[in-house]
């Protein structure tokens, strides 16, 4: 019986090591996915910000914050997700302050006003 136990111990140790590596691997994959979603969300927000700036520069009225989601749907066509949401499933928001428009995503945690929020700002220049 002891011999069998001694023979199985290395296998048990390897099994524990493999399980640990799988958990570590899973967390690394999750982190990579969140990073990719963040980068793509930042890119999308930059495109939205540029469109807002062009709209203002051409003398058109900017969308009301309450109608921002509908404005995005009207002005963008998306193939893989709703245009008015980030890559975490949260709706984009816009705020205006003076000559600046800030487009905000709640980021990976989905909660507003936290450290992981993603913000794109653009200067609004009117003719």
Strand content: 5-15%
Using only CA atoms, what is the Rg?
23 Å
| Strand arrangement, major sheet | 1-2-3
Molecular shape: elongated
Total count of strands: 3
The assigned structural class equals alpha+beta
Poorly predicted segments: none
Helix-strand pattern: HHEEE
Helix content: 40-55%
**Span between termini:** 88 Å
Number of H- or I-type helical stretches: 2
Largest sheet: 3 strands, antiparallel
Structural account:
This protein is of the alpha+beta class and 127 residues long. It contains two helices and three strands; from the N terminus they run ααβββ. The protein has a three-stranded antiparallel β-sheet with strand order 1-2-3, with helices on one face. It starts with a helix and ends with a strand.
Break the fold down into its secondary structure elements and pairings.
Elements: H1 2-57, H2 68-75, E1 93-97, E2 100-105, E3 118-123
Antiparallel strand pairs: 1-2, 2-3
Question: How would you summarize this macromolecular structure in one to three sentences?
Answer:
By secondary structure, the chain is α+β, with helices and mostly antiparallel strands. 50% of the residues lie in helices and 13% in strands. The mean pLDDT is 86.
Provide keyphrases for this structure:
single chain, 127 residues, alpha+beta, 3-stranded antiparallel beta sheet, 2 helices, elongated
């Amino acid at each position: 019986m002891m011999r069998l136990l001694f023979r199985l111990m290395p296998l048990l140790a390897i099994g524990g090591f493999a399980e640990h590596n799988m958990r570590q691997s899973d967390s690394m994959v999750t982190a990579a996915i969140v990073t990719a979603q963040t980068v793509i969300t930042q890119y999308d927000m930059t495109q939205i910000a540029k469109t807002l700036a062009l709209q203002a520069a051409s003398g058109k009225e900017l969308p009301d914050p309450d109608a921002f989601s509908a404005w995005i749907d009207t002005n963008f066509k998306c193939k893989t997700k709703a245009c008015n949401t980030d890559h975490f499933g949260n709706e984009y928001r816009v705020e205006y302050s003076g000559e600046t428009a800030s487009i905000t995503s709640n980021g990976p945690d989905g909660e507003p006003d936290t450290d992981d929020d993603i913000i794109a700002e653009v200067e609004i220049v009117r003719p």
